Amino acid sequence: MNQTKKLIFSLLLSGFIISLDLITKFYVKENINLLISNMEIFKGLNFVYVENQGISFGIFSNLNISFFLGIISFLISTYILYLIYNSNEKLEIFSLSLILGGAVGNGFERLTQEFVIDFIDIYYANFHWPAFNLADAFITIGAFFFLLSIIKTR
């Protein structure tokens, strides 16, 4: 895949993810009154409303570092673009594009409102996984495929 096609693919996929992430967060924020209490989608999945000022699973949420985390997200995004540009592996480019979209989505939100909106609550019985959003999901899926691409090339 040549450099131009690679970057166009990556930017289109990342742009789609960013748009999907920000649209869902906007919808959740606009309909917060529906989510004040858990909104059960089906057994094992609720929609909730959480303003996460920390990182994954709310770590460091008691510190006021959202702006710093937003800047870090964009620095990491720049590095991911560099990796994409220098990669020739399709799975690696795909996985890095997923991570890029998620990082930019969350980074943008941190810079504009100092928190990210988490709204997906997966649970089993009384155990609830920490709430997350689509950007987090795409970052996680991208990281999984990135590890697969590393294993594949060895």
Q: What structural class is derived from the secondary structure elements?
A: alpha+beta
**Cα gyration radius (Å):** 16 Å
Largest sheet: 4 strands, antiparallel
Order of strands across the biggest sheet?
1-2-3-4
Tally the beta strands.
Answer: 4
Morphology call: globular
Structural summary, described in words:
- The protein is of the alpha+beta class.
- The protein has one domain.
- It is 63% helix and 15% strand.
- The chain is built from five helices and four strands.
- Strand 3 and strand 4 form a beta hairpin.
- Helix 1 runs parallel beside helix 4, helix 3 packs antiparallel against helix 4 and helix 4 runs antiparallel to helix 5.
- The longest helix has 28 residues.
Give the helices and strands, then pairings.
Elements: H1 3-30, H2 32-35, E1 39-42, E2 45-52, H3 66-86, H4 90-113, E3 116-124, E4 127-128, H5 134-153
Antiparallel strand pairs: 1-2, 2-3, 3-4
Helix pairs in contact: 1-3, 1-4, 3-4, 4-5
Task: List the keywords.
5 helices; 154 residues; 63% helix; alpha+beta; single chain
Quick overview:
This protein is an alpha+beta fold.
